[in-house]
Amino acid sequence: MIEVRNLVKRYGTHLAVDHLSFTVEKGQIYGFLGPNGAGKSTTMNIMTGYLGATEGEVLINGHNILEEPEEAKKCIGYLPEMPPLYLEMRVREYMDFAAELKKIPKKERKSAVEQAMKMVKLTDVENRLIKNLSKGYKQRVGLAQAILGFPEIIILDEPTVGLDPKQIIEIRELIRELAKEHTVILSSHILAEIQEVCDYIMIISGGKLVASDTPENLEKLLEGQRSVEILAKGTEDKVRMILKSIPEVKSADVKPGEEGGTTKASVIPTENQDIRENVFRAFAGADCPLLMLYHSRTTLEDVFLELTQKESAAAKQTESKTEEDDLWDEDNVWDDEELYEGEEESGDGGDL
Q1: DSSP secondary-structure letter at 90?
Q2: Distance of alpha carbon 238 from its chain centroid, rounded?
Q3: pLDDT of 206 strictly over 90
Q4: Which of 124, 137, 144, 263 is the most exposed place for a label (fewest CB within 10 A)?
Q5: Distance, CA of 19 to CA of 7 (rounded, Å)
């Protein structure tokens, strides 16, 4: 359906999209995720022909978006982040105008407009001026023009912005309905929404594609780094010494607890394994009561933050041309290799 090949977009010295390549298959809902300034909207604008690329190409059903714009755009319905509305028009008038622009045959125009308005629940306000509508209804008008004529590919940039919870649920149901016969690409900053609706997720950071997979597979990326969270009744030094005695513990972030006389820690295992029983036995043997012990679950938010922060850190490292060890060297954080090396040199058990 869509092929994006080695896409580059520069604004002066700023590189907004950095050699981006991906493929969108038919009949699925794709989620496009990324922090502000990651290049999402720029990429979508290039895919729909609103912007030209500095390098690379976009093919829509085999048609190059720049060389064959009319043929390519026939396949696309697009809702930008700011809907392209004529505020002085009435809803029905605007929809008729949009149908004419899309070159929908006259004999099919009326039914196409009515079907689109019915799907997004605009029929009750069809004779009202767009400028007098609420933000949520204006968003619906923009969505109606995007799906007008029911193109094969529907691209939605932040489609639920300004909608109330009930309307958001309705739009989600509409997106699922559209996906039965259309390919939908959805951009959103709301991770829960992407996870709820999308079959496939693409995460972009710094203009690069850093991950592309199903929500379930993306969550498995960090399975090996799932931490064990504990709250113990004891001092920080005692908790560190107990954790140090557990061979399966790779590293830990130890901090004072919110209650007096308690210490909390986030513990990372050496391998992808459940170390809760070992932790429990170690603290019981040291007569240090555990008030809380649980295995944290990796979420899509964890994956998103991990991948985008890693890409951001890599970009900064490239810019500064410096190399840093990938150790947990912040305050109150220790790494097992660094720890044991210090222990061997000092012979006094090291300072955790």
Answers
A1: B
A2: 40
A3: no
A4: 124
A5: 5
* Torsion sign across C-alpha atoms 235, 238, 239, 240: positive
Q: Where are the domains of the chain?
A: 2-214, 223-297
**Furthest C-alpha separation in the chain:** 89
Cβ contact 130:90 at 8 Å: yes
Q: Does the global pTM surpass 0.85?
A: no
Q: Which of 35-44, 91-100, 186-195, 199-208 has the lowest mean pLDDT?
A: 186-195
Please state, in angstroms and as integers, the Cα–Cα distance from residue 239 to each residue in 261, 264, 333, following that order. 12, 9, 13
Six-digit token pair at 49?
Answer: 């022909």
DSSP state of 275: -
Decide if 39 contacts 204 (C-beta within 8 A).
Answer: yes
Burial class (CB in 10 A: 0-12, 13-18, 19+), 131: exposed
Whether 328 shows a pLDDT value over 70: the answer reads: no
